[in-house]
Amino acid sequence: MASIVIRRATEADEAALSRICLLTADAGKPAEYLHDFGELPGLVYAIPYVKLPTAWGFVLVDGTHEVVGYILGSKDTRAYEQYAAEHWWPALAEKYPPASATKPADVRYMQLLRNMHTAPAANIAFASAHLHIDILPEYQNQGWGRKLMQKAVDYLKGENIDGGGVWLGLDPRNEDARKFYKRLGFTAIEGAPEGNMGLKFE
């Protein structure tokens, strides 16, 4: 385990990010069985963060140089959403028409590409930055999630984030994730829907 390192995420990590996203997309559990188009979760929640403006990311790399986890986000969520709406989602919506899918999860993602959710106003009032974190199950509960989060927070502290903090959304079914975030100091965001948690920087 000593050979595991954290480094900046790059576009060359796309395939790994997509794979990890799919393997954790069902409330933290593998979601391959839900999809014929297994690339869809990553195209929504991972790959844009190594391609679009205001985005940033770090990856966890094991001793064989395989990416086994990531933490990704945007420093300015509203700017990220606007750019994605103009330059990212339309091409994907054209490529993935809902009529081409038979599995409900694929249909949901394809519809989402046509009407992407945006952050609640309460989240933006809390802080402009957001993040996603995912680690393969065999590397969980070993302190790597905490190390990835610390790396991200240290980075964001130097980026003059509006609100001086960062937030995330989680599947309300993923109780293990909620407990993990609470241990790191994340709390529910006042006025936001269930599953939105934020952390103010010290």
Structural features, described:
- The chain is 37% helix and 19% strand.
- The protein is of the alpha+beta class and 202 residues long.
- A seven-stranded mixed beta sheet has the order 1-2-3-4-5-7-6, with helices on both faces.
- This is Acyl-CoA N-acyltransferase.
- InterPro entries: Acyl_CoA_acyltransferase, Glycosyl_Hydrolase_84, GNAT_dom.
- One of its GO terms (molecular function) is beta-N-acetylglucosaminidase activity.
Properties at a glance:
202 residues; alpha+beta; Aminopeptidase; 8 helices; seven-stranded mixed β-sheet; 37% helix
Q: Major sheet, described briefly?
A: 7 strands, mixed
In which order are the strands of the major sheet placed?
1-2-3-4-5-7-6
Number of domains: 1
Mean pLDDT across residues:
96
Question: How far apart lie the N and C ends?
Answer: 30 Å
The coarse silhouette is: globular
As a percent range, the share of strand residues is 15-25%
Helical percent range?
25-40%
What's the total count of β strands? 7
**CATH class (first level) name:** Alpha Beta
CATH architecture: 3-Layer(aba) Sandwich
Order of helical and strand elements: EHHEEHHHHEHEHEE
Structural class estimated from helices and strands: alpha+beta
